Please model this.
Amino acid sequence: MKKTRLIAMAAACALSITASALLVSGNEPGYDAAGDPLVSLSYITEILTPAYDAKIAEMEKKVNAFSMQMSAQAAEITQLKAENAALKEEIANREAEAAEGWQVIYLEQGAKLLAKSPMEVILRTGTAIVVSITSNGINDITDGTELYNAVEVPTFHCLLVPRGDDGRGIQVTSEGAYIMVRGEHEIVK
Model:
C-alpha cells in the first residue's frame, strides 16, 4: 500500500508542476492578444459583414449583367431562327417556282405582265410593247440587245427582266396575245 500511495503522490506533484508551468507561461509580459484567434462581435459586424456584403453585391452585379447578356443572346437566337425559317420557306418557294417551268398565258389588249422577281417572257402571238418606268429596259436574250419603254416586243424572242418589283414588263397592244412566262409575275388589267 505504501507503494501505491507513493505513486499517487508522485503523480499529483507532477500534475501540479505542469499546471503551474502553463499558468506562468500564459501570463508572460511578451504575450500579445492581437494574435489570439478569438473574434469579437464588433469585428464581425464592423469589418467582416461589410466586406462580405460588398463581395455579394459585386457578384450580384456580375450575375445580373450575365443574365441580361444571356437574355439578349436568347432574343437574337430567336430572331435568327425566325429569319432562317423565312429563308428556308423562300428557298422552297423558289425551288417550286423553278420546277413549274414555263406557263402559257393569254392576255387581252391593254393588259400588262409585270415582273415581281426575275422573269423570262416569250411573245408567241399578237403584239406588245415594253413597259419600264425606270431608265432600264428589258434584255432581249435572243438578239443580245436591250429594249426600252414603249419599244415593240419581237415575237419568239426570249426577253429577260433581271429584277422584279420595279415596274418592268410588257403590255399587249393587239386584241390579245399568247405569252410564255417563267418567274413570279403579276397581271395588271
The chain has two domains: 40-100, 102-188.
